[in-house]
Fold this sequence. Notes:
By secondary structure, this protein is mostly helical. The chain contains seven helices and no strands. It is globular and about 35 Å long.
Amino acid sequence: MKHLLLAMIFTVTFGSPAFADATAGEALFKKCKGCHSFTKKKMGPNLTGISKRANPEWLKKWLTGKNNKEMWAGNDPITADLKKRTGKKKSKHKNALKKPEDIANMVDFLMTK
């Protein structure tokens, strides 16, 4: 019973990828198309192969926008690869998603790429 309660609290707090909707994430991605693409480089990095470079937990942190400066300053392998591929010294990513379900949906969509 204790494990069930903890699982329920975790799901409500962080959202559950089991209920994420890639189609809804794709609809949200329309807001990102001004800077990102899966076919060419724009202001933001090309996202082709994102599911092979970044794990869902990293994407969730990035998409909330709360820790982007700290993440960019860090030297984890995903961020280091992003810095190398973009050649940028700092991130200008500002369009954070606020709702946990939007974040879960976007991550689910990006993991199909």
